[in-house]
């Protein structure tokens, strides 16, 4: 009896240990559009930019992590963005997960998946069949990554490269930290996969390009797959502000400066980001990613941008609008079709504590000032709201050993601009003759205070 009792205890312990074992799986699904049968409108610059051919594939990449039977998934797809309703449809297709995060790389050389870049400003650029292909591809990538799960150890590395970013809006604040997670097979130390997160607009091919491409991300992933001999998933982080490669001097190996809008510059930049990830991997240290603690908050953000409101009224922006009564978390979200009254969109903010790693899931393009705690103080006298309170910085809320931010997470609401740096009306900041770029692609000045405030409450557990 004593032996049987001891055996039961040992078996119970073994089962518990197995149940808490960390595992990971990677997968990717090709979601490249077919060019030729019907127009493919490329997103990110102007209207009516039709694709003429495919240069490199558009891909949905998934990473599934498990803590025993508890599973979470991260998905990244090479498109301009996905609205929350698309993400909800993807989640509905896959069951058994504690949490699924769906992010877009914000690629400016892929098909329109938001509706803003069609033949005219009042015609959507979305092809319904292609949208379904993207959503199905993301779901299939999650399923395949789940099936590929295997026990793993994890290392985390970081590296900075301010020379690989240009901030084209004053004040100059760069989020120049790359974060990389490397997963390895416990017994053989064989690489199982790499997750890399970097903060830059994939727009190096510029507005003149008409070839479908994942921009520099294709080359970053290719570079790392070749050097690490394993799958690679790329996630976009802090890209507001604007973090870009356009007008950023990039030279080839012989010292020749490469021009914007060329695949030569795009490939060179992508491989430089890959080399930065390799640098981060050299100094990577072991990290524990369990247990999983996930907190999310659905909330309303008012849409004050008149261009977006008109696009919604024309059907170019296809998503539900809600009555805005002045509070992000009303007792009931009330859908509306009355554009004459204040309206809002429903979105989602997330805080993930994965063992020693904290992750901010931000539903748009957040400015580095709001992440790093570098909002201008005092505000420029030309700002529209110079006395607005400074938003709680995202990274100041994260007190753990490691941190990471995933942008365009589960939604795309455009730029989140510090309210006291909002500058849409004359006189303009810094003595400029016109407003800087940014406000035209933001839902409004209240977005940053609401998003940052909601994230602070999530971290506190409220």
TrEMBL record:
InterPro entries: NEUT/ALK_ceramidase_N
Name of the protein: Neutral/alkaline non-lysosomal ceramidase N-terminal domain-containing protein
Keywords from the UniProt entry: Signal
Signal peptide feature range: 1-19
Domain named Neutral/alkaline non-lysosomal ceramidase N-terminal: residues: 22-292
């Amino acid at each position: 009896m004593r032996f049987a009792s001891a055996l039961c205890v040992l078996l119970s312990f073994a089962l518990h240990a197995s149940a808490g074992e960390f595992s990971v799986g990677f997968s990717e699904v090709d979601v490249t559009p077919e060019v030729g049968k019907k127009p493919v409108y490329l997103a990110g610059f102007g209207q009516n930019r039709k694709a003429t051919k495919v240069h490199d594939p558009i891909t949905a990449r998934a990473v599934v992590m498990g803590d025993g039977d508890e599973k979470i998934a991260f998905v990244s797809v090479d498109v301009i963005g996905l609205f929350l309703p698309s993400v909800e449809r993807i989640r509905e297709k896959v069951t058994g997960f504690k949490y699924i995060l769906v992010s877009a790389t914000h690629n400016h050389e892929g098909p329109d998946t938001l509706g803003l870049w069609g033949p005219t400003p009042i015609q959507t650029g979305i092809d319904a069949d292609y949208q379904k292909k993207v959503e199905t591809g993301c779901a299939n990538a999650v399923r395949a990554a789940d099936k590929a799960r295997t026990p793993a150890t994890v290392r985390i590395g970081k590296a900075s490269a301010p020379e690989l970013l240009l901030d084209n809006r004053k004040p100059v604040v760069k989020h120049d930290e790359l974060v990389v997670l490397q997963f390895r097979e416990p017994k053989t130390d064989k690489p199982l996969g790499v997750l890399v997160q970097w903060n830059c607009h994939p727009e190096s091919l510029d507005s003149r390009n008409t070839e479908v491409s994942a921009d520099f991300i294709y080359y970053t992933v290719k570079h790392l797959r070749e050097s690490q001999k394993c799958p690679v998933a790329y996630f976009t982080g802090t890209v507001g502000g604007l973090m870009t490669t356009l007008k950023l001097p990039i030279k080839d190996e012989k010292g020749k400066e490469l021009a914007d809008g060329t695949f030569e510059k795009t490939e060179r930049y992508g491989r430089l980001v890959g080399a930065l990830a390799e640098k981060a991997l050299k100094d990577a240290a072991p990290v524990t990613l369990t247990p999983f603690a996930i907190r999310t908050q659905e909330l309303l953000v008012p849409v004050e941008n008149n261009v977006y409101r008109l696009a919604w009224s024309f059907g170019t922006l296809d998503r539900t609008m809600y009555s805005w009564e002045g509070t992000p978390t009303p007792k009931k979200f009330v859908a509306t079709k009355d554009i004459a009254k204040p309206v809002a969109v429903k979105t989602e903010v997330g805080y993930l504590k994965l063992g020693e790693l904290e992750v901010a899931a931000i539903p748009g393009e957040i400015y580095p000032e709001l992440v790093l705690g570098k909002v201008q103080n005092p505000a420029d006298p030309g700002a529209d709201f110079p006395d607005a309170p400074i938003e709680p910085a995202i990274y100041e809320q994260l007190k753990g050993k490691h941190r990471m931010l995933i942008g365009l997470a589960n939604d795309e609401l455009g730029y989140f601009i510090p309210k006291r740096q909002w500058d849409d009306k004359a006189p303009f900041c810094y003595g400029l003759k016109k407003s800087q770029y940014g406000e035209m692609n933001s839902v409004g000045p209240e977005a940053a205070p609401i998003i940052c405030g909601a994230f602070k409450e999530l971290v506190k557990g409220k």
